[in-house]
Amino acid sequence: MNCQIYFPKKGLYAVTPENILRGSKTLQKIESVILGGAKVIQLRLKNEKIEGKALEKIIRIQRLCKKFSVTFIVNDDIKLARKIDADGVHLGEHDISYDNARRALGNNKIIGISCYNNSKKAVDAAEKGANYIALGSFYSSVTKKTATKCDLEILQQTSKKVKVPIVAIGGISAKNGHILIKNGASFLACVDAIFNKGDEYNLARKINLLFEQEK
Predict the structure, then answer these.
(1) Alpha helix locations (H) across 13-97?
(2) HEC states along 39-55?
(3) Hey, how many other C-beta atoms are within 10 angstroms of the C-beta on 167?
(4) Angstrom distance (rounded) from CA 28 to CA 9
């Protein structure tokens, strides 16, 4: 059963760098990305203790997303998603199963599934009730240098088989994102292309404008 919470139809899906909580300008960076047009913010943390000031900062990020009506997704961490009442979670192949995640979160939360380069897995996830699926890596990724590669044909095939949004990920920028949209991507997921370069607003805006050009 699909959950009833709203999930946008298309746009920039911004994934935070793993060290996003350690900087002094965390909220400014995320707000700039949101103002640049991001429809979704995914909090991706690795080897981070979620307590004290770190938890306080996460809650402030969540409030910022709520202020601008931006969907707030937690990567991997079901416990954190429940604790702060996030809009949903994103799951990879080594995370908790979709069925267990749905039981833990209920039907009013978003669950996204990474399907890498596997169209069948994407179809199965959508049929089970995933609210969106992710495919990639389409290009060389700075964030995940050994990521599984996915080609455009897989994206094309999958877009014809599923009704849920498809998030394309992996080395995506304003220079190469348009071809993914043309071939069926509903969202472009970006990390390095928008963060860590000191111009989050304009970088996010350039990617978001790719969707306007496809109208």
Answers:
(1) 26-35, 52-67, 78-84
(2) EEEEECCCCCCCCHHHH
(3) 26
(4) 26
pLDDT at 166 over 70: yes
Whether the Cβ atoms of residue 134 and residue 154 lie closer than 8 Å to each other: no
Q: How many CA atoms lie within 13 A of 78 on its CB side?
A: 15
Q: 101 and 89 in contact (C-beta within 8 Å)? A: yes
179: tokens are: 């071809």
Dihedral sign computed on CA atoms, order 1, 110, 143, 174 = positive
pLDDT at 142: 79
48-54 LR contacts (CB < 8 Å, sep 24+):
48/18, 48/21, 50/77, 50/80, 54/21
Token duo for residue 35: 């103002």
| Segment 80-116, tens digit of pLDDT | 999 999 999 999 999 999 999 999 999 999 999 999 9
Give the C-alpha distances (Å, rounded to integers) separating 105 from 84, 101, 113, 137: 12, 6, 15, 28
pLDDT of residue 146: 77
Using the Cα atoms of residue 86, residue 89, residue 171 and residue 127 in order, give the sign of their dihedral: negative
Contact 119/154 with Cβ under 8 angstroms?
yes
